[in-house]
Amino acid sequence: MYSVLYPDFLAKDDFKYEKPIAKGICELIKYDAKKSSEIPDEVWSKADALVTGLYMKVDNNLISKLSSCKIITRMGVGYDLINEVKCGESGIVVSNVPDYGTYEVADHAITLIMNFARGISEYDKLLKESINNNWHHSSVSTIDRVVQKKIGIIGLGRIGTAFALRAKAFGFDISFYDPYIPDGQEKALNINRYNKLEEMMSTVDYLSIHCLANNETKNLIDATMLKICKPNLVIVNTARGAIVNLDSAYNALKSNKIRAIGLDVLPTEPADQKHPLINAWLNEKWAQGKIVLTPHSAFYSPTGLIFLREKALKTCIDHLQGIKTSNCVNEEYLIYKREI
User: Fold this and answer.
1) Which phi-psi region, left, alpha or beta, contains residue 13 (left: φ > 0; alpha: ψ -120 to 50)?
2) Pick from 106, 75, 74, 68: which is nearest to 90 by CA?
3) pLDDT per residue over 291-332, tens digit each?
4) What tens digit of pLDDT does each residue of 27-82 get?
């Protein structure tokens, strides 16, 4: 029987959805850890597969302990916490679950944008403070008519495409930047393509980020990029916190270089309350209605989470049983695959 380790599993339901899949095939082992040192070395060494969540960093030190591991499946899309190169050199497959949460993240991103454009949460907050003083349409500064406004998308994968379709329904003029998407996708969707991010940034009124976090995209939206943008830009990030430089975003927002920012993901999670942008969101009047945070929840719906959990385990089992290897993200680095 195989051993599948969940080192940072947050669910408290005793593998309710995984047990029927694992029955007679593998043992499921759960920890609620954030560091590899919180789990005994002998547990790491015996695991045939890992299913990782939001917190466990799979670095060189941890990989050296995985003497039995054949596959690591990231329970989600992004795999920036996993050293996929070292895993490949060690014969360990790294997979993800790219098709979960497509609807949810696209819905979340367009909702953040429309929340700014229509001022829903800010109207609600102001009315709770004083119905009589704030019962006026002009009390929110981010209101906008979005029809024919220009919206830019960074990353036109599954989620970026789903977001584009939603933005179309609202009447946005849509552009995207993604150097890895084949020519012609813009024609299929009837949207605009930019080959240089700087050119797109200088034209759009709204920006939605849907790319992976890696060395190429870390701090992609920084002070240099924010100097190029239009002064009314609204930024929404439901991808990864590392993509937006939070210091640069704060400075741009404080100096009115951008109009608003909605973040579901942050470089440090939970949010660092000492960071100027987080402190402004919590305490400073000038930032009211210009910053919206959600707790890395864009991916979540009960239905979507069940699909994610089931598919993450099935991906491991299919590989261990030699049926198929799905959604391998480190194939180019796999010198060999460990024997099953």
Assistant:
1) alpha
2) 68
3) 999 999 999 999 999 999 999 999 999 999 999 999 999 999
4) 999 999 999 999 999 999 999 999 999 899 999 999 999 999 999 999 998 899 99
* 3-class state of residue 297 by DSSP: coil
Candidates 3.30.160.390, 3.20.20.140, 3.40.50.300, 3.40.50.720; correct CATH number of 2-99+301-333?
A: 3.40.50.720
What amino acid positions are annotated as catalytic residues? 240, 269, 296
The answer as to CATH 3.40.50.720 being correct for domain 102-293 is: yes
Q: Decide if pLDDT at 10 tops 80.
A: no
Phi, psi of 177 (to 5 degrees): -130, 120
Amino acid 9: pLDDT = 86
Q: Is the dihedral of CA 205, 208, 211, 212 positive or negative?
A: positive
**Range 237-271 burial, b when 16+ CB lie within 10 A, else e:** bbbbbbbbbbebbbbbbbeebbbbbbbbbbbeeeb
- Cα dihedral 90, 93, 98, 101, rounded to 10, equals -90
Token couple for 273: 């309350």
Q: Would you list the domain boundaries of the chain?
A: 2-99+301-333, 102-293
Phi-psi region of 74 (alpha: psi -120 to 50; beta: other; left: phi over 0): beta
Residue 340 has pLDDT above 80, yes or no: no
Residue 6 one-letter amino acid: Y
The whole-model pTM stands at 0.85
DSSP letters for 201-270: HTT-SEEEE----STTTTT-B-HHHHHHS-TTEEEEE-S-GGGB-HHHHHHHHHTTSEEEEEES--SSSS
Dihedral (C-alpha) 135, 136, 141, 146: value to the nearest 10 degrees?
Answer: 110
Pick the closest to residue 71 from 311, 335, 298, 313 (CA basis): 313
Model pLDDT, residue 77: 87
